[in-house]
């Protein structure tokens, strides 16, 4: 690992990122236009001490999950993200080389009180806001297909129970498959879509059964009732916005009025919960 180069690169990207671009309030006087170290640490869900040590070239070897969280916090491009991974001695993560849609990205970080993410049309997450990372852990920059939501649904029972605890998972699975069928056709059955379908068929008999039923529909999202171990029940309305240009999707989970969810979501980001002493993003 090239510690000094990694630290220098992180510092320069932090100095170049304005609070507005990071989705943070810009009030108050600042000595420099960029973010403070504690702001980057908070966005990445790392302890301030850990992040300071990384910038100073004295930190421990960061994990791939930590690098994914930092890439999202610093709003790195695909090329910049790959560079950070290589500086830290990791292979650049596999996945789409897509730059997040700027309009959808602005909406994502402009809705800081609602957990949200930005994904490509195949379901691979390209960006998350801080609250989404705090609730569900980092999805961006993960190896292989781990950052793909369709893949996660059909390969991780734990993920299903997180999103729909004790629920009937069949409708959500069918919705994912029907949307993927529609997207595969829209993409002209390109290599990326067909490879994802082939891999899903290989690992999930349930996916293969649903795929062979040949249902097609646009992506939709049902109301979520999530139980977080830190703050309790969260009642969330799901909203999806799709860009006609990039075909990327923004998904926001809006707190339902009258349920106390908005206050509990603020508790998820309270300082004593977001300071992770060992430097690993909380999942």
Tally of structural domains: 2
Order of helices and strands: HHHHHHEEHHHHHHEEEHH
Strand order of the largest sheet: 2-1-5-4-3
Low-pLDDT runs: 271-283
DSSP summary, beta strand count: 5
CATH top level class name of the largest domain: Alpha Beta
Distance between the termini: 25 Å
Describe what this molecule looks like in 3D:
The chain is α+β, with helices and mostly antiparallel strands and 283 residues long. The chain has 2 domains: 3-93, Orthogonal Bundle (434 Repressor (Amino-terminal Domain)); 102-166 and 219-268, Beta-Lactamase. The protein is built from 14 helices and 5 strands. Strands 2-1-5-4-3 form a 5-stranded antiparallel β-sheet. Strand 4 (232-242) and strand 5 (249-255) form a beta hairpin. Helix 2 (37-44) crosses helix 4 (64-73), helix 4 packs antiparallel against helix 5 (78-87) and helix 11 packs across helix 12. The two termini are 25 Å apart. The model is unreliable at 271-283 (pLDDT under 50).
């Amino acid at each position: 690992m090239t510690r000094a180069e990694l630290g220098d690169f992180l510092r320069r990207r932090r100095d170049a990122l304005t609070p507005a671009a990071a989705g943070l309030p810009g009030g108050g006087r600042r000595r420099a236009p960029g973010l403070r170290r504690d702001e980057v640490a908070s966005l990445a869900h790392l302890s301030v001490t850990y992040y300071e040590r990384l910038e100073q070239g004295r930190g421990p070897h960061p994990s791939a999950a930590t690098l994914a969280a930092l890439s999202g916090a610093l709003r790195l491009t695909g090329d910049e993200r790959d560079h950070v991974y290589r500086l830290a001695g990791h292979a650049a993560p596999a996945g789409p080389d897509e730059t997040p849609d700027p309009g959808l990205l602005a909406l994502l970080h402009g809705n800081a009180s609602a957990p949200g993410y930005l994904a490509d049309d195949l379901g691979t997450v390209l960006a998350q806001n801080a609250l989404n990372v705090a609730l569900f852990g980092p999805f961006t920059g993960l190896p292989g297909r781990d950052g793909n939501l369709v893949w996660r649904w059909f390969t991780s029972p734990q993920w299903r129970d997180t999103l729909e605890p004790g629920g009937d998972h069949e409708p959500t699975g069918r919705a994912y498959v029907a949307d993927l069928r529609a997207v595969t056709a829209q993409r002209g059955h390109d290599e990326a879509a067909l490879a994802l379908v082939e891999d899903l068929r290989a690992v999930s008999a349930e996916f293969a059964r649903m795929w062979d039923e040949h249902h097609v529909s646009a992506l939709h999202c049902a109301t979520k009732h999530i139980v977080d171990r830190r703050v309790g029940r969260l009642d969330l309305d799901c909203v999806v916005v799709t860009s006609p240009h990039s075909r990327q999707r923004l998904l926001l989970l809006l707190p339902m009025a009258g349920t106390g969810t908005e206050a509990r979501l603020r508790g998820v980001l309270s300082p004593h919960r977001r300071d992770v002493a060992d430097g690993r993003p909380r999942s």
